[in-house]
Design a protein that fits this description.
With about 425 residues, the protein is mainly β. Helix content is about 10%, strand content about 25%. It contains five helices and 27 strands.
């Protein structure tokens, strides 16, 4: 068995020289290694957070009640971070923020303006191109959230709802949920909210789903509102923290991000390891039990292009075959794309065991950070056919991911399709070569 190469740099392994300390990475669920049209600039499927050359973190300082001259000055000052809480047409509370030498701030949202470090757009389940997402009205905030990382060990990362705009302001309008805290500070929630779930037992083979919570603008933890944009906030959960742990999920109402710490990534299989596992499967020369032709997973670069040797599976039973089109006079070795699209999802009877169910092509899960362990890919999600290790399939099939404004369902981490069937995945049954 292969062991993953330690490609990822952990904070403890960095010297004080040129390699910056890496805090961790954020991955968008639903993308199998890269965006459909490729990663470009700040718009990509994963974002690495590393220690900045100079700290850019901020912390709250002065609170200005009502529309005072100081409050107006704080809002208009382009060099001054501030959060404005509009209580009524005539009353606004402004909280000034001051520079914090001990933290680095990273901002995430839909806006392409310069304060946003990681541009995130709505994830459309199973979409093959970004054009599929253009017609959808986005529910992700332009300045959705910010992550503050401690510049010194243990490099703690904390999440807060809302991000500062180009004028270094955050505005919570009249309709946003907001309130005065017991220590006379202000706090509030964004329109569609920022939800966080910390898995139990970290992101390991023993991981179990945690409980979804909502994070406030000041980083406090609350139970969920009745719906995403309800006026009434949930109950404060004082025993829980906004501190991100390896495997924390962050939902921005339209896209869900996975946080992996640098230490966690050092234990995760690498793309090289997954490639070695792919080659190991292909070297065993699995065969179609009907056509007796050898099957092979295509290279990671061709992860969305059907191949004539592509393995297909009957999702009801897990029997793996080559592509076949019963009763057709077409050349059996040529995969007809139109026919393939017609066949996907249609109920077909497995010739091995007569179980009826969807018949779909198998694709390797290429985003290594979604894997819980380094075991071989033996299971496939249903109905999409993305293949990964058993413990990875079991974990994601148990995670209720937010969908819309008040529903949750399990989904494939590689394509975001809602899982179906009794378990949401199936164990693959390959047939070895007959010779």
């Amino acid at each position: 068995m292969f062991s993953p190469e330690q490609e990822n740099i952990s904070p403890s392994s960095t010297s004080s020289s040129k390699v910056p300390v890496k805090y961790g990475e954020l991955m968008v669920l639903g993308y199998n290694g890269s965006l459909p049209n490729g990663d470009r600039g700040r718009r990509k499927s994963r974002f690495s957070l590393s220690r900045r050359p100079k700290a850019n973190g901020v912390r709250p300082s002065t609170v200005h009640a009502a529309c005072t001259a100081q409050a107006a000055k704080a809002i208009s000052n382009k060099d001054q971070h501030s959060i404005s809480y509009t209580l009524s047409r005539g009353q606004t509370v402004v909280v000034e923020y001051t520079h914090d030498n001990n933290t680095d701030m990273f901002q995430i949202g839909r806006s392409t303006e310069s304060p946003i470090d990681f541009v995130v757009t709505d994830t459309v389940a199973g979409s093959q191109s970004n054009s599929d997402t253009q017609s959808v009205q986005s529910t992700i905030s332009r300045f959705a959230c910010r992550v503050m990382c401690q510049r010194t060990p243990p490099y703690t990362a904390r999440i807060y709802a809302a991000g500062f705009d180009s004028s270094k302001n955050i505005f919570l309008g009249e309709k946003a949920a907001k309130w005065k805290t017991c220590d006379s500070q202000m706090d509030g929630l964004t329109t569609n909210g920022v939800l966080v779930m910390h898995p139990r037992h970290g992101f390991t083979e023993d991981s179990k789903p945690g409980v979804w919570r909502e994070i406030s603008v000041c980083g406090n933890v609350f139970t969920l509102r009745e719906t995403r944009s309800a006026q009434q906030r949930g109950k404060m959960v004082e025993a829980e923290s906004q501190e991100l742990v390896d495997g924390s999920l962050i939902d921005l109402c339209g896209a869900t991000l996975l946080w992996r710490t640098a230490e966690g990534l050092s234990r995760t299989p690498t793309v090289k390891h997954l490639e070695a596992l792919r080659q190991e499967i292909n070297a065993a020369r699995p065969q179609c039990p009907v056509g007796f032709n050898t099957l092979a997973f295509p290279s990671m670069r061709r992860k969305d292009t059907p191949d004539e040797k592509q393995p297909w599976v009957y999702l009801q039973c897990g029997h793996v075959h080559g592509y076949h089109n019963w009763g057709s006079h077409r050349d059996r070795d040529r995969l007809d794309r139109d026919q393939e699209e017609r066949e996907q999802g249609r109920s077909r009877e497995c010739p091995m065991c007569r179980a009826s169910g969807p018949y779909v092509p198998l694709w390797l899960g290429c985003e290594a950070s979604f894997y819980l362990d380094t075991a071989p890919p033996t299971h496939a999600f249903s109905p999409c056919g993305h293949v990964c290790s058993e413990k990875t399939a079991v974990f994601w099939s148990q995670i209720p991911l937010p969908h819309g404004t008040h529903t949750f369902h399990a989904a494939c981490p590689f394509c975001a399709q809602q899982l179906s069937g009794e378990q949401g995945y199936v164990r693959l049954i390959f047939q070895g070569p007959l010779d």
